[in-house]
Structures
1.
Amino acid sequence: MTNPVIANRLHFEDLRLGETIALAPSTLTREMITTFAAEFDPLPFHLDEEAARQSLLGGLASSGWQTGALSLRALVDAFLSKIASAGGLGFSDLKWKAPVMVNDTISGAVTISELRRSQSHPHWGIVTLDFDIRNQKNKQVMTMRLANLVECRNPEVAA
Amino acid sequence: MTNPVIANRLHFEDLRLGETIALAPSTLTREMITTFAAEFDPLPFHLDEEAARQSLLGGLASSGWQTGALSLRALVDAFLSKIASAGGLGFSDLKWKAPVMVNDTISGAVTISELRRSQSHPHWGIVTLDFDIRNQKNKQVMTMRLANLVECRNPEVAA
């Protein structure tokens, strides 16, 4: 049941605990922020400069969901597109630590913090990925932990 | 320091533990799925029908981040735009329970599961919101728990 789409990619056995993946930077323009917010998070402090100035954020800031989406995209480019991923299981402990303002540049790193073979499905492993997302001043803006299913190359080898 | 943008909205004191907010339905067309995935989650099983058929998902399925974004949008329309929200703090325990396939309709409900006054900032409260997102067959596709900051009307009343 080899899946030709992912046969040549890194499999679970190729991943290493503590491995760190650098994420490419992304600059959030005003248009990116308001376009995303209009579709998914249309609150005044993501859409309107004056309302944003009067809010806790202190100025126009991206939807936290957009910060997450751009971080996910960077991880796809740097890592998920190169491994035999079967999909995400979920997230835990997402924290928005500081607002991402217009023209801020976010980047960061993702660390493999856990590698676990599935007991019930020996052809899969679960990789846990810790995001550390920062702005151009190296201030942390978001952390989160993603659990992703990855195919094993040798499912017959005991977990 | 009254913020005119949110002065007339529901404040922390108006929210009730156990209150349930119904989310409007959203149908994920093929174009919505591939457009979102091309921008934020460009993995084969979100973009290409044949690759998706060979994947664990069994067919073209939305990015889990898109399912979350649409659920957030529905919560903004039904609730967050009506309260004096100061922004999200983060979320925990996001779980993708089943894939959302082309033309599936998602909807669901959000329940206020915790209301807590901030000890350090008495003019804010923290509302915890539990999402229960289901498809048109009433199968649960996603759960998550969001923590949101809300202004108090009477900060001088002890927490």
2.
Amino acid sequence: MTLTASVVGASGFAGGELLRLLSGHPEFELRQATSREYENRTVGYVHPNLRELDLRFSDPADLESVDALFAATPHGVSMGNVEQYLAAADTLIDLSADFRLGSEAAYDEWYDGHTAPAYLDAATYALPELSRDGLADADIVAAGGCNATATMLALKPLLDAGLLRPSDQVVADLKVGSSEGGAGGGAASSHPERSGVVRPYAPTGHRHEAEIEEQLGLSLSFTVHAVEMVRGAAATCHTFPTGGTAADGGIETPELWSAYRDAYEAEPFVRLVAGGGGVYRYPEPKAVAGTNLAEVGFAADGERVVAFAAIDNVMKGSAGQAVHAANLAFGLEETAGLTQTGLHPVGSP
Amino acid sequence: MTLTASVVGASGFAGGELLRLLSGHPEFELRQATSREYENRTVGYVHPNLRELDLRFSDPADLESVDALFAATPHGVSMGNVEQYLAAADTLIDLSADFRLGSEAAYDEWYDGHTAPAYLDAATYALPELSRDGLADADIVAAGGCNATATMLALKPLLDAGLLRPSDQVVADLKVGSSEGGAGGGAASSHPERSGVVRPYAPTGHRHEAEIEEQLGLSLSFTVHAVEMVRGAAATCHTFPTGGTAADGGIETPELWSAYRDAYEAEPFVRLVAGGGGVYRYPEPKAVAGTNLAEVGFAADGERVVAFAAIDNVMKGSAGQAVHAANLAFGLEETAGLTQTGLHPVGSP
Amino acid sequence: MTLTASVVGASGFAGGELLRLLSGHPEFELRQATSREYENRTVGYVHPNLRELDLRFSDPADLESVDALFAATPHGVSMGNVEQYLAAADTLIDLSADFRLGSEAAYDEWYDGHTAPAYLDAATYALPELSRDGLADADIVAAGGCNATATMLALKPLLDAGLLRPSDQVVADLKVGSSEGGAGGGAASSHPERSGVVRPYAPTGHRHEAEIEEQLGLSLSFTVHAVEMVRGAAATCHTFPTGGTAADGGIETPELWSAYRDAYEAEPFVRLVAGGGGVYRYPEPKAVAGTNLAEVGFAADGERVVAFAAIDNVMKGSAGQAVHAANLAFGLEETAGLTQTGLHPVGSP
Amino acid sequence: MTLTASVVGASGFAGGELLRLLSGHPEFELRQATSREYENRTVGYVHPNLRELDLRFSDPADLESVDALFAATPHGVSMGNVEQYLAAADTLIDLSADFRLGSEAAYDEWYDGHTAPAYLDAATYALPELSRDGLADADIVAAGGCNATATMLALKPLLDAGLLRPSDQVVADLKVGSSEGGAGGGAASSHPERSGVVRPYAPTGHRHEAEIEEQLGLSLSFTVHAVEMVRGAAATCHTFPTGGTAADGGIETPELWSAYRDAYEAEPFVRLVAGGGGVYRYPEPKAVAGTNLAEVGFAADGERVVAFAAIDNVMKGSAGQAVHAANLAFGLEETAGLTQTGLHPVGSP
């Protein structure tokens, strides 16, 4: 029996990606796509890749009853509509930050407070490679954010293997695509201004640190740069692990391979890429654009271990992650609807 | 019973795309991928998107027996190896120009002659939307070239409807991606030189004209520009049709919609995009990158009718077209293995 | 004695380019840069390349008295403020379309009418390579638009040499950068949507045709495509000249060289690029980005002559052209302040 | 009296940039441009921006006598030709790494040894903002490398102010353009492979560390990523300074402004950009493309101070730096020939 799904905020980038994934999903039937701005327009009017989809945007005030409601609205919206969503759906899969953090206090510190803190306990953070606990029964699933996802995937194996300790120094230097800014736009995201940049826009104190601290118990330094691509988030994590056992403290490459394989060998969406030959020797966004894959890698350098991760921010950093979490929430095959392959050659994704 | 397939010249761009398509094809089993240069390397060594594929390049001198052999080698190679290919496979699907034209004389005029002209009669040109004749029994299938494909898809409906006559004036102005140059590279295709160009590189007298003349009986003017993208071929055909029935000779938009719908309504890989609202009002490569779709459109302007077509040159202009033709040659469902959806948002594909 | 200049609408792209040119001009002293939106901000706040300039935007309601007032406002604004401008300056150099056409009727047909038609006679169209007549005494100079400039530079020599007749068939196929849309932006110009396109946005009936018809007496077909670059306008003009003297009507390359040299040999801002070897064999925008140069070229193809031109739309298509015209209007050395050299290597300009 | 100059290796990217700078330099007369590969071709054949330059490449075996010889050849060449160069010129300005390091041992460790170690003592490292000592009389000037230049400009003020100690933790994360790879090309630099990347290619142990250690006495961790642009090098230096005087160890923004102003206020080629409003709030390569400027900035984050620098790698990271050093070596005005202004708007430089 097919499960039904709806997408709220379906005219945005993550919303459109959900439409793409759900319309091709073997187990979900896409029933509704809402958008205030484009009510009654075909979904193809906004998403040209979905012109063959026979579906029109509808008013979010009239939500159909579905098994799974995917909310792809800007931060602050889901928390205001959560009761309406839970009335319409068995499970709410939220792509915003509204249910990612564990306490009202965290929202007071990092965001503008929370309007429905009572629901925070019912929410389960979703970065499945980190933990699948609680996803199977979740009423509210909070898909992890793109920068946090890339960063945590890069670091997790070092922590799990005890090589990196929570008190060790970690600097995450991120390079992200323009779709991270959402469909809203603004002066800085107009093509003449945004094209070809290497632009630090969050030099310090980024909200994604909150997620990472809660999930990994790790405090880290974060700097985000906008670069020339539409999709993609690449994390370079400079770590100074003190948990290695070698006499001189340095960690060798074989030990790193061990740690990363232990962490990810069984993971369907993680691909280890670390050294070797050819052109593509370390993780990069081009290689995974359009897919739910994360490339993860590492390099040893004396006291430093550099850990890399590259994802498609609209997929593994957002919509793909949400569908992955939904597969787990509904007891489906984990990779259902997420078997897309990347492209080669491909340009600036 | 599964059909078997092999790809010769599998380390190039079209070859890699064939590996992507065939490895996911429900009816074909990919048995061999050859490459002299990368013999014994995993296919993922060259094509990072295919790292999960458990397959190594092998020596093209040792071809396995298969049902379908896809040749993705540079022009001039297939004609030299055709006997070896036909010994190994029931059907040869060639992606080069070696079997596209109908006569040895044509190769003397447009290329450097032909070394196996006896096989030209056995070859069937493959642009299915133009004609499916002869594909079902073909021994040799010659997949149409990317620039010719885009151009002919744009023009066919005008010819079929009798609006455009073979003697009418037609100018095809093309904009293409860097992958058209193949994986070989050269000074002009290095990133610092090729990046950001609008560069006429075939101002006149392009080989694709030969294909078009043979297939459509139409003589036309052709100019090709390299532009900033890796995948994509966009044709803008400026036509001055004299077959319209209106008193003043002009052709009106409803008549054009009629012609294009008649030609393509039933075609699974053609999407009509002509005017309307929103951002994506006419055919463009971004909307179809990674898919086998062609967007086709038109605009009326007094005596002139502008016909547009946009494809992914590695897909509908090459590998996708080859697999489509193979589906027809083997009596499979036409869209088998070719149901990929495009992306939105997406950058320079 | 130094001449004084001001720029109205100085926070936009053409306005900022005027600031760059005038601040480095040996004969002009930049006295004022106006912007309603950024009043009191430093010019470097909007134009990061001009951070060293000690100047703040001021209120356009308080115009200083200057010799030359450059208006870089959107279409429709100058015609509404022309009296105020002429009260403040001896000479108005307008970058918009407001004074380019010759009659009120033309504005009724192509634009939304004209609010100060009495001033049209006092205005002189400025594409110096076309004609310098009337520029020396002009009260109002109307700098030619970018698409029209590129197109006319490509065609002029053919007309002058009598090879192309006004009734001959001409199709202009243009490829332009995102800065053509101005600094205002909009959904279609946000980076995720605008990046990597080959997008026809003016398939037919473009306003630039009006300018070309008036200036060259030539009726032509026009199609404009947005492509991936910020600066640049490239015109490919497909012409079918009937004025050649050869028996078969075809025009040979030596005859074309003659025509183009006659037209441009003495022109400081036109560079002929037609064939030859190396990577850069025909006009392209990258080669002239940041300069006031136009590359112009051609190729013969039987009945067809393809004429190319490439400019930087913010320079020769706008601000550079305006300064060139001002140099002529004030009897200065023609190339004053316009001696910038392009870059190599360079990316997507 | 004009000084004479020549450029050896003039067909490469840095060589071409030197031609651009020297041909417009008020004090230098460009006498010769050598290239084995393009001997007798006009310089414009390779560098389209220099088509107006009346100069042909000549054989490097026949060097003219000049005051200044600029060597823009790959690493390893100058050291082999140094005697020939010093016979032809009073001053050798070398753009390669061949004379940057102080000892033969350093070359044994970081490069492939040195073939003319006797000349190392006569060489003066040239990053003028770091030190002008020894440049005035230099026989051999070794222009600093691009990645080292960007990194050192970012860090110098922190060291000078005693905020950062040589033993403190520093991680430099670089993002660079494709021209860094030189004109030679290779598989990884072909447009289809290099386009749109965020590709770590030097995860650790980069040669530029050697220069930085020698110049600043600072040991640091280095990771370099190729990103989508042709020109540009952007350094993000994550530092953990322990030299601050505050009780809690943190360094506040006013203290940073002090340090950076002290270091750079009088420097003609350094522009401080740190916070503020608008779109361009931190250093970025687009803002300085084509100029000899470096944008430098910083942000305080508790224990961490992030220091940024952005340059054009072909200018301040290579040719511009060389000309700046030559101005100092010959006692000319420091900014002679280096007064170019950047562009806005501009794309991927």
